[in-house]
Amino acid sequence: MNSTSTPQEIEEEYVWNFFGRNAEYYLQTWRLRQKGKYITFNAAAFFLGLFWFLYRRMYLGSVNSG
Question: For residue 51, which of 65, 37, 38 has the smallest C-alpha distance?
Answer without folding.
Answer: 65
